[in-house]
UniProtKB/TrEMBL annotation:
Keywords: DNA-binding, Homeobox, LIM domain, Metal-binding, Nucleus, Repeat, Zinc. This is LIM zinc-binding domain-containing protein. It comes from the Eukaryota. The keyword Repeat applies. Its main location: nucleus. One of its GO terms (biological process) is neuron differentiation.
Amino acid sequence: MAQGPVCSGCQRIITDRFLLRVTDNLWHEQCVRCAECGDELTDSCFLRDQKLYCRRDYAE
């Protein structure tokens, strides 16, 4: 059985044509979300304690 890379957000195999690499992990584009508010992180993200945050929540 062929395996692909596993998404760090949902833990499912990534079969999409494109994937994102953030903090040395692979993600589906739609799974890159703020750990605090859940907003999708499209342009930038911030890392604290191995969790991704939007600019607003990272600043708090």
